[in-house]
Amino acid sequence: MRAPAAVVAIPLIAGVLGGVYAGTPSAIPAALFACAGSAAGCVAWRRKRPVLLIVSCAAAFFAAGATVGARADEEALAPALLAWWHALPEDARDDPVTLEGTLKADAARSDFGATLTLDVDRVVRGRVARTVRGGVRLSVSGTRVFAAIGAWRQGRRLRVAAALREPLDYRDPGLTSDRVRLARQGTVLLGSVKSALLVGVRARGSLAAEAAGWVRAQVRRGAAAAIGRWSAQSAGIVTAILIGDRSGLRPEDERRLQEAGTYHVIAISGGNIVLVMAIVIAMARRVRLRPRGASAATLLVVAFYGYLAGLAPSVQRATLVGVLWLAARLIDHRGPAINALGVAAAFAAIAAPLSILDGGFVLSFGATLGILLLADRLVPRRPPERSLSRAQRVRRTLIAAAAALLAATVCAELALAPVSARLFGRISLAGLLLNFAAIPLMSLAQISGALAVATQPVLPDAAGLIGWVAHISARGLLESARLVDVRPWLVLDVPPPGLVVVAAWYAGIAVACFSAPRRVRRLGILLAVSAAVVMVAAPSPARADAVPPVQRGWLRVVFLDVGQGDATLVMAPGARPLLVDAGGVFGSSFDIGRRVVVPALWALGADRLGVLALTHGDPDHIGGADAVLRALGPAEVWEGIPVPRHAPLRRLRAEAASHGIAWREVHTGERRHLGPIALRILHPDAPDWERQKVRNDDSVVIELRYGSVAVLLPGDIGAEGESAVTPLIHAGPLTIVKAPHHGSATSSSRRFIETLHPAAVVFSAGRHNPFGHPAPDVVERYVSAGARVFRTDLDGAVVLDTDGRTAAIWTWTGRGVTFTRDGP
Question: Residue 773's pLDDT is what?
Answer without folding.
Answer: 93
